[in-house]
Amino acid sequence: MNQPTPAIVAQSAVRRLPRAALLLLCAAYALAGFVGRDPWKNADIMAFGYMYELARGHTSWLQPDLLGQAPEFHALLPYWLGAWAIKLAPAWIAPDVAARIPFVALLVLTLLACWYGVYYLARTPAAQPVPFAFGGEARPTDYARAMADGGLLALLACLGLMQLSHETTPALAQLGCTALAFYGMAALPYRLAVPAIAVLAGVVGLGLSGAPAMATLFAAGGALLLYVDAPEDVADGASRGRGIAVIVVAALVSAAIAAGLNMWEWRLEAASEMDWRHWRGYARLLAWFTWPAWPLALWTVWRWRRQLGHRHVALPLWFAVVSVVSALLSSTPDRALLLVLPALATLAAFALPTFDRSVSALIDWFTLLFFTGCALVIWVIWISLQTGVPAKPAANVARLAPGFVPSFGLLSFLVALGATVAWLALVRWRTARNRQAIWKSLVLPAGGTALAWLLVTTLWLPVLDYARSYAAGVHLLKARIDGPGCVQVFGLSRTQVAGLLYHGDLDLRPATTNSPCPWLVATEDLEPSVSAAFDRRHWVQVARIPRPADRHENLVLYKKRQ
């Protein structure tokens, strides 16, 4: 007998994940990494530099720049959000902290949109589990809620989400807008007002965040899938027509705004120009970045292969394929891959009702060993920094971050200790008997990822902040400037300019031969160029300032001779 779907789920398997635990997990994951640090090299400080200049009124809102250098990616919305937050925040909130507030909201929005996107796709008639002969199968609403819990856990478990989703960059804005558009297209057959607003905001916001082509492709696929949906998958014909109209209008508005602001750019590399090392490197990146969602997503495509034309599989599959291909051809594939995570998490959720017990046990044991080992390593290195025992980890840190002085933070220690205790309790819960919840296989992956991220951003945060921030080097350089006056910069990157602007609070100007500025800053590798562009008889080298943890990045300070 052919089963209409591969999902066999009893009502006892769709228990709700405790809301307090789920909200606490999401809150801890979202806040960790945003709190208690300086802007980090590279993309984080670079994007913040544009926000900081916009907030101070030193650049155009439609064409932001850093001392004449345009952004690496032609995006506007993320810079606007950060600048508005800086301007609206009270004076006691540091600008870099204020700029992170809307990005915390974007990460929360991503998690929320993913949950509701999976929820509405799981309510599709074609996604329902097999009805039992004597009843007892999962009820549609309870089934959809449990599947949404699984999809959210799958998203939190993705390794690639950890760092890049906690930076104030266009990539996070693109992720939030993609998740919002995905939710809207998933929910349009059931509701109109809120999903329509979500589609419009997501598609237009994605275009304003530097990805108008991706927004157009997502919208085109979403409209087509809604048009060819099976009649039973759409509430009524009127809702189908209205939904298609909403998506098309959103795509047209996004394209028109991008064209009006000259934001259409071809930033893809030709596949014919890629060598074997590029393909191998991309495959390796894709494997770890999307782990553990990608093997579950492949399993979903196989087990649900007879339902590939239905929206609960087709919609996330379209988003995933577009994102993966775009990342393959992108110059920054890791940030482009962020957009695939909500779709892969959705596909991973639909693998859950098709698992047998042996596969679930394999996932649990691998996750338990991997993340427990990671937590042990993080704790051992922290203990070594605090006590000197064992000695080798502390010596390695001293070599990689010369000048770093360890300090003990009580709050960070308590948070890390609490996270570790919570992990042990979670392991004990998962290894107990009679745990039939459909989302149980993703509890340990999500909890382990959150544990690792919390430990890194508490126990290791001081040394990471010291190594990845420009603050220490800029303060050393500023201490060598013994008088007032503007500072010329020559050959500095966007990240270096942003670091000098924020941490040094200096009056920076592009270097010119007739500038009255008495100071000049250049990078060490550009020293011959400085000699060629400026008469060295008029300048004296004052200091060579290294950046901690990067001996190849030095700033050279010159002073004009009197």
The helix content is 55-70%
* Count of β-strands: 5
The 3D shape can be described as globular
Number of domains: 3
Characteristics of this structure?
23 helices, five-stranded mixed β-sheet, mainly alpha, 3 domains, 5 strands
Descriptive account of the structure:
The protein has a 5-stranded mixed beta sheet with strand order 2-1-3-5-4, with helices on one face. The model has no long low-confidence stretch (mean pLDDT 90). The protein is mainly α and 562 residues long. The chain is globular and about 95 Å long. The protein contains 23 helices and 5 strands. The protein has 3 domains: 73-126 and 147-354, no CATH class; 357-468, no CATH class; 471-560. The chain starts with 18 loop residues before the first helix and ends with a strand. Strand 1 (487-490), helix 22 and strand 2 (508-510) form a beta-alpha-beta unit.
